From TrEMBL:
Protein name: CCA-adding enzyme
Lineage of producing organism: Bacteria, Pseudomonadati, Pseudomonadota, Gammaproteobacteria, Alteromonadales
Gene name per UniProt: cca
Cross-referenced PANTHER family: MULTIFUNCTIONAL CCA PROTEIN
Organism: Salinimonas profundi
Amino-acid positions noted as binding CTP in the UniProt annotation, renumbered to this chain: 8, 11, 91, 137, 140
Named cofactor requirement(s): Mg(2+)
InterPro entries, sorted: CCA_bact, NT_sf, PolA_pol_head_dom, PolyA_RNA-bd, tRNA_CCA-adding_enzyme
């Protein structure tokens, strides 16, 4: 039995990037071998084990053969005779197909070190085209390493286009697409994820409302990353350029988490309105429709997106123009209105009127 450090940990160490997790491949072993050593098996489709102390993942070297459609349409062979090189051959990119043995020696059968030096994202073998998720993964790696000067190799981009034209990406599940999208959005250059998909003719499969990927989309995403915004804010900033209907369709198709979808829908529906609101009645309507009274934290995020969009469009706007009347309206005391003798539906109407009067006083246009 031999154990090798593989994949991202080897790659990022060579790039002088922080190694956040380590994955291991075990050759010459059966599941019973690791179970007897106290490992816990967690893999369902193929043998993956957690180390009893470090909880890092150890996978038996395996071969995969395409047997059907989709991300899981593979037959796996993880027998003790599978070699390290055979395991590395099934990986997506050459820079991810390197290993390090216990002596620190690098095993690099597919010239990953050369591609690191040349800053190329290149596929390992023709088996790349068997898994449509790899198109999204390459786009994500392009976003991650763009700041270092990496680009997709021409032959890999050609293969990605062929896969997109065959409609393979439509086989993917929404969960897998969102996972790659979520991770890509949190990279330093998230816009590169979408521009790479567009170059590969793969943007319209899951992100049709974003095709073509406009310059404004790219710049606002870059700005959101530069300000280290959260995932919901980055996604919502991008969605602020789409219609409410398109965002609803996109977030539903991707099965986005509720917090991501909610902020994205607010950005699509109200960012432009907040940037160009011209009277107290319109502003109070926005406050009510955004449920600002019960969800002030979410509305504060929306204002951050508005500010980002205003700068992106070189439009003179400050969040204080909205925050000041909002803060005043939030101080209106419903108990004071009840004390004046209003009852039932009258209370809501009187409260709304009091807020309107306050907003009108504080609005500075």
């Amino acid at each position: 039995m031999k154990i090798y450090l593989v994949g991202g940990a080897v790659r990022d160490k060579m790039l002088n990037r922080p190694v956040t997790e380590r994955d291991w491949v075990v050759t010459g072993a059966r599941p019973e071998t690791l179970l007897d050593k106290g490992f816990t098996q967690v893999g369902k489709d193929f043998p993956v084990f957690l180390h009893p102390k470090t909880k890092e993942e150890y996978a038996l070297a395996r071969l995969e053969r395409k047997s059907g459609q989709g991300y899981t349409g593979f037959v796996c062979d993880a027998g003790p005779n599978v070699t390290l090189e055979e395991d590395l051959l099934r990986r997506d990119l050459t820079i991810n197909a390197m290993a390090q043995d216990e002596n620190g020696e690098i095993i690099d059968p597919f010239n990953g070190q050369r591609d690191l030096a040349q800053k190329r994202l290149r596929h390992v073998s023709a088996a790349f085209s068997e898994d449509p998720l790899r198109v999204l993964r390459v786009a994500r790696f392009a976003a991650r390493y763009h700041y270092l000067g990496f680009s997709v190799a021409d032959e890999t981009m050609t293969l990605m286009r062929e896969m997109a034209h065959s409609d393979m990406l439509k086989e993917l599940t929404a969960e897998r697409v969102w996972q790659e999208t979520r991770r890509a959005l949190m990279e330093r250059d998230p816009a590169v994820f979408f521009t790479t998909l567009e170059q590969a003719s793969a943007l319209s499969d899951w992100f049709a409302p974003l095709a073509p990927f406009k310059h404004a989309y790219s710049t606002i995403l870059t700005s959101s990353a530069g300000q280290n915004m959260s995932l919901p804010c980055r996604f919502a900033a991008l969605m602020s350029y789409l219609s409410h209907q398109d965002v609803k369709a996109l977030t539903t198709a991707l099965k986005c988490p509720n917090d991501v979808s909610a902020l994205a829908l607010l950005a699509a529906g109200y960012a432009d309105k907040l940037l160009h609101v011209s009277d107290a009645e319109a502003l109070l309507t926005i406050f009510n429709q955004c449920d600002v009274w019960r969800r002030p934290e979410r509305f504060a995020l929306l204002l951050q997106i508005c500010q980002l969009k205003a700068r992106n469009e070189q439009y003179a706007w400050q969040p204080e123009s909205i925050e000041r009347p909002l803060a005043a309206a939030q101080r209106v005391d419903v108990q004071h209105i009840i004390a004046q003798g209003f009852k039932g539906p009258e209370i809501k109407a009187a409260l709304n009127q009091a807020r309107l009067n306050t907003v009108r006083e504080k609005l500075d246009f």
